[in-house]
Specification:
The protein contains six helices and eleven strands. 30% of the residues lie in helices and 20% in strands. It is globular, with a radius of gyration of 17 Å.
Length: 203
């Protein structure tokens, strides 16, 4: 039977593990990276120091991603945050010949056809950025503050379903984290379990 000290240690260890978001740690500096966007330009995370940044892992063929885009939920989230000064980077880590892989031109057509609002779409077919952040699912969301500190990682919301109807009454964790950050308040929910399709990394 655990004594009080043992129980306390278990809680501390559990909380410490929970604060490490699949290889990146909330409250610590977000790992730097460079990736090519759909126009062939090299984009670096360090380009945006002084601005908050959202990283969104995406795969247009994933039913969970489709839920958020066909309903307009992802676009509304993108629009709200980018209009308030957030840089939104959508990242495609699907390997060539895997589900969700697209060329730069195809990615731009998807953005236009869906009325999406990313600041940039980054192509990561070798999975370097995805593995750096240990991105697990599409979508998988990360919010980085203007100082480059990771403030949130995990699911976009608390309804792990591919059904659009599940969006009714859902808590949008990304919006909530941004609202707190914008107000100068501590983000209350910093880590959640991402849900969706697995990121289609190459072998």
């Amino acid at each position: 039977m655990l004594n009080k000290l043992g129980f306390t240690l278990i809680i501390i260890i559990t909380l410490s593990i929970a604060s490490i978001a699949n290889g990146v740690e909330v409250g610590k500096k977000a790992p730097g990276f460079k990736a090519v966007d759909t126009k062939g330009n090299i984009v670096s995370l360090s380009d945006f120091i002084g601005k908050p940044v959202v990283l969104e892992w995406t795969n247009h063929d994933c039913p969970y991603v489709r839920k958020h885009y066909t309903s307009g939920n992802m676009q509304r989230t993108q629009s709200t945050l980018t209009e308030e000064g957030v840089v939104w980077l959508s990242i495609i880590s699907s390997a060539e010949e895997e589900q969700g892989y697209v060329s730069g031109m195809e990615a731009d057509k998807l953005t236009a056809s869906r009325g999406a609002y990313p600041s940039n779409v980054l192509l990561d077919p070798k999975g370097n950025v995805g593995r750096l952040y240990a991105a697990r699912t599409t979508p998988h969301m990360f919010l980085i503050d203007e100082k480059g500190i990771l403030q949130y990682q995990g699911a976009i919301d608390d309804k792990p379903s591919a059904r659009p109807a599940s969006l009714k009454g859902a808590t949008n964790y990304v919006k909530a984290a941004w609202t707190s950050l914008k107000a100068g308040e501590k983000v209350s929910v910093t880590n959640t379990k991402p849900y969706g399709c697995s990121v289609k990394y190459g072998h």
